[in-house]
Amino acid sequence: MAARGRHWLALWLVFLLAILGWVVARQTASLALARRLSQLRTEHAAKADLRARLEQRIREAESRAVLIPRAERLGLRLPVDSEIIILQVPKAEGH
User: Fold this and answer.
1) Is residue 85, in this structure, part of any structural domain at all?
2) Looking at the domain assignment, is residue 64 inside a domain?
3) Which domain holds residue 7?
4) CA 7, CA 82: separation in Å to the nearest integer?
5) Alpha-carbon gap, residue 30 to 36, rounded angstroms
């Protein structure tokens, strides 16, 4: 009978070690995942910053302060009021 008790004890120890190994593996995986998440958040912040800077550059490039001098260098001029024609889309009848 004493051998049977030892077998149960060994079986429980193996079971306990398996559970502890599983817990360690999960914690290791979660730490790796947390590192990757932190890395992705850093990349996202850097890309958001780059996007904001690029949008600012676009706004500056579209401004009259930039466009008018460039147009003058190309020999272009601003139209006078009588040269501006506003086109209107005719309304569809029946709608």
Assistant:
1) no
2) yes
3) 2-77
4) 103
5) 10
Q: Are 66 and 60 in contact (CB under 8 A)?
A: yes
In eight-state DSSP terms, residue 63 is: S
User: CA 27 to CA 33: how far, in whole Å?
Assistant: 10
pTM for the model: 0.57
Query: ∠81-86-89 over CA atoms, to 5°?
Result: 175
Which residues, in sequence order, are CB contacts of 77 under 8 Å at separation 6+? 71
Cα separation of 27 and 29, whole Å?
5
Tokens found for residue 76: 């272009």
Helix ranges restricted to H, 1-95 = 2-62, 64-73
Give residue-wise pLDDT tens across range 13-50: 999 999 999 999 999 999 999 999 999 999 999 999 99
- Whether 67 is in a domain gets the answer yes
